[in-house]
Amino acid sequence: MTATIINILWAIIFSFIGAALGILLFVKISRKLPSIFDRITPNIDEGKEMIRGNLAVAEYFGKIVAAGIIGISIIIGLAVFAGIIAGLH
């Protein structure tokens, strides 16, 4: 019985470590997403275009950022899941 409780505690610890690292990655990559978008489109100032009402630029920028956030969220979820699996084995 105590081995099961110890494994569950390890799973919780590994999950929190995975979540913390995932959140750090999320914050770091989220800050870099706009600069990556600027490198893809060097001759366009996205902020000015969005203020002018250019919906195409706004939608494209939104899709790029949303895809990045979804990808990072998948990584965080897998890190937490891997922590649970590692703790239970």
Note down, in words, how this protein is organized:
- The chain is mainly α.
- The chain has one domain.
- Helix content is 89%, strand content 0%.
- It has helices spanning 2-40, 46-51, 55-88.
- Helix 1 packs antiparallel against helix 3.
- The longest helix has 39 residues, at 2-40.
- The model has no long low-confidence stretch (mean pLDDT 80).
Give descriptors for this structure.
mainly alpha
Summarize the structure.
The protein is an all-alpha fold and 89 residues long. The chain is built from three helices and no strands.
Can you lay out the helices and strands and say which pair or pack?
Layout: H1 2-40, H2 46-51, H3 55-88
Please tell me the total number of domains.
1
User: Total number of helical segments?
Assistant: 3
Mean pLDDT: 80
How much strand content do the residues show? under 5%
Poorly predicted runs are: none
Q: Sketch the major β-sheet.
A: none
- Indicate the percent of residues in helices: over 70%
